[in-house]
Specification:
The structure is a homodimer. In chain A, helix 3 runs parallel beside helix 7, helix 4 (135-146) packs across helix 6 (186-193) and helix 7 (196-210) crosses helix 8 (221-232). By secondary structure, chain A is α/β, with parallel strands linked by helices. The first copy, chain A, has one domain: Nicotinate-nucleotide-dimethylbenzimidazole phosphoribosyltransferase (CobT), large domain (Rossmann fold). Chain A has helices spanning 28-38, 58-65, 107-120, 135-146, 161-174, 186-193, 196-210, 221-232, 245-248, 255-261, 279-285, 295-304, 309-325; strands at residues 2-4, 74-76, 87-89, 125-131, 214-218, 239-244, 264-269. In chain A, strands 3-2-1-4-5-6-7 form a seven-stranded parallel β-sheet, sandwiched between helices. Chain A starts with a strand and ends in a 9-residue tail after the last helix. The A-B interface holds A 38-40, 42-43, 69, 71, 73-75, 82, 84-89, 116-117, 120-124, 329-334 and B 38-40, 42-43, 69, 71, 73-75, 82, 84-89, 116-117, 120-124, 329-334.
């Protein structure tokens, strides 16, 4: 399940790398959903590429989908622009800047609807992924509101942590919250300091676990923040996190310690992008993007299915080339 | 692609069999989309079963999905109740009773958005299916408005053709239209006498054909009406219709002649339900339901994939039992 949505927190200068042009960022989640679903953007007018030329991690997730059987359900976590991907609705609306007082007023309703949907899903196992530009900043916002010590990663090689902390401080002040004031109250943390994607994912975790579905969080520190939210919502069963080596080796994030404190089991997959001399991979090796759109989860599933990583790399190049030259269109089945 | 939506024309007493309780009819398309997607209703509070005990044809389509690889994209063609199935949005809203003056005011926008979406879909081949209670009456409405002579089938063993003709006459009068007044103007026929599902399907046909995607209409007389609409919209390429033997042998409908007049190639598949002595199949043999939710298309795809019909029948029983006793939940992958 890919939860796709937006927060106007992404519009703060320097916060996000998910898209070259800040004015196009708002299309990134819609495009990501289409790339995973169809192999290319079909309605969204952008191909999400970072300022450094790094393509969206949706390319890797799609590459895995072309190698193994992998159903994808996209959940609308507050999309601001149309997508051609089919989406499940849980009432999410685009999130506002967390420096506003009530940036995610739909959070309580979204938590309830996502929980109900998650409880009803008949699958034995679900991987949960996200695409939301600005999402590491809102993730930092909710963990501070909960009083957790988690650090967050970035889609930029130089993580603008000072800026993120400034934004979170301003957000807490606007919400009249001190760090930890929302402990045990995930709906408050999400509504005041989060984004609609995190609200959707938190509701899904609670509902899926209640419905007996095994949950793997497919992503980086945003998904760890979702795990923290789920813990504060009372979820006490084992939760797994499948992420990339790029997050796991991020010096600004002590992933293993944070995962340990949240009782989250880690699976780290290395796609072996170094030394391949391809723009789609060099940027990841240089620390861009790192994770997102379920990349780490998709890599873990490919690995578990016995697909060699060189096949994943080859297919990543195929998908990348298709995106950039508009050639070789193909359906999800091809 | 399954287009799911509603028209208040279905609320006219005696028009539709798609659901035992008229008050629950409005949930039928949402439930059908969930059955095809997940194998059972997950959000919709109903299992669509006709007054005679006949289950929705979604059961057969789902059975085929569990036997062959078959991606499904649900398009929201005017759903009035939430569905847990992911849906593509083209701006459709629930349709009003065609005896109103402007029952499908969204038709022009839906035609344009569905056409644009269809043009962008990268697949080589798409089967188009519908679920809309009351849809044969609105189909009759549009073909009369276009001036075509097509007769329509029914989900009831005794086709209430007199009632349908009365409703269509009242609708034409309310719209100040004589039969044939909307010839060459499918948007007018759809807006005044149609339903939002037909509008969506017509736009999809036009867009898919423009985008080089082969189109098979998966259904009965409603899809033939969509073919007529597409012809009036200027589509002149070959269109195929895959339907069930239950529609093809309906004495009230001369399917072969009608298809011939519209230059539509027919594929008729017989699932061999007679003599099986199972309520899910006996009702079809007795003339209930007949078609819908892509049943004829799914059967044709199973046949083309070399799946023996007895496997389709066995799996139909499995899906039927799962629906009715809530046991054996499974995901689309299982």
């Amino acid at each position: 399940m890919l939860v796709a949505g937006t927060t106007r927190t992404a519009e703060i200068d320097g916060i996000s790398a998910a898209g070259t042009d800040p004015g196009l960022l708002v299309h990134t989640p819609s495009a990501d959903a289409e790339i995973v679903t169809y192999g290319e953007p079909i309605r969204a007018p952008v191909v999400p590429v970072s300022p450094g030329g790094c393509p969206t991690p949706a390319v890797v997730t799609r590459a895995v989908r072309e190698l193994i059987s992998l159903d994808v359900t996209v959940v609308d976590g507050g999309l601001a622009e149309p997508t051609g991907a089919p989406t499940v609705t849980v009432g999410a609306r685009p999130g506002d800047d967390i420096r506003d007082r009530d940036p995610v007023s739909t959070a309580p309703g979204v938590l309830a609807a996502a929980r109900e949907f998650g409880r009803a899903v008949p699958d034995d196992e679900v991987y949960l992924a996200e695409t939301v530009p600005g999402g590491t900043t809102t993730a930092l916002g909710v963990v501070r509101a909960l009083g957790e010590g988690l650090a967050v990663s970035s889609s930029l090689p130089e993580n603008p942590l000072e800026l993120k902390h400034d934004v979170v401080r301003a957000g807490l002040e606007a919400s009249s919250l001190a760090p930890g004031d929302a402990a045990g109250e995930p709906a408050v943390a999400l509504r005041r300091m989060g984004d609609p994607v995190l609200a959707t994912i938190t509701g899904l975790i609670v509902g899926l676990v209640e419905g007996g579905t095994a949950v793997t969080l497919a992503g980086g520190t945003q998904l760890l923040a979702a795990a923290a939210l789920a813990r504060h919502a009372g979820v006490d069963t084992t939760v797994r996190l499948a992420t990339t080596v790029f997050v796991a080796t991020d010096e600004r994030v002590d992933l293993r310690t944070a995962a340990g404190e949240l009782n989250v089991e880690l699976t780290v997959t290395d796609p072996g992008f170094e030394g391949r001399d391809h723009p789609a991979m060099d940027a990841y090796v240089a620390g861009e993007a790192k994770e997102g759109v379920g990349m780490g989860g998709a890599l873990a599933l490919a690995d578990a299915a016995g697909v060699p990583m060189d096949e994943v790399r080859d297919r990543t190049v195929t998908v990348y080339n298709r995106l950039l030259d508009g050639q070789e269109p193909m359906g999800a089945d091809s």
